[in-house]
Write a structure and sequence with these properties.
This protein is of the alpha+beta class and 133 residues long. It has two helices and six strands. The two termini are 23 Å apart.
Length: 133
């Protein structure tokens, strides 16, 4: 196994090329994301708890609309946190087929692509200060 960086490792054996990419190694960013998720969850729970104390129908309608948007973003934030915490990407090439898997805790679907159909690959540059790195 050859370790390219803190996030990427490569194995080459016979007719197999395997690449494993971890989403992040920055614990500080992961901690901030956890704080964001916690604060977002508490905020939504407080609004939900106050729904039963409101008697105005317009205010109740506003709270329902607010909570629908809140639930959507709660799901998105939780999914991103779980991916950053426990996820990894696996690519392996074997017998002319590229296999790709986004794995979270050893679960995930494998997609297969024929290498003859893949062309025009290029590197996307990112900066070190980008939150998504």
């Amino acid at each position: 196994m050859k370790i390219i960086s803190d996030r990427i490792s490569v194995i080459k054996k016979g007719g197999l090329l395997s690449i494993v990419i971890l989403p992040t190694t920055d614990k500080k960013k992961l901690g901030f994301m956890f704080l964001w998720l916690t604060a977002w969850t508490i905020c939504g729970l407080i609004v939900f708890a106050n729904y039963f104390n409101v008697s105005d129908q317009n205010a109740k309608l506003f709270i329902i609309v607010y909570l629908s948007f809140w639930a959507y973003y709660e799901f998105k934030i939780a999914r991103a946190f779980i991916w950053k915490r426990w996820g990894k990407e696996k690519l392996w090439i074997q017998k002319g087929i590229l296999h790709y898997q986004r794995e979270i805790r050893k679960k995930g679907k494998v997609k297969e692509y024929n290498l003859e159909l893949i062309n025009d690959l290029k590197l996307i540059e990112t900066s070190e200060n980008n939150f998504s790195v």
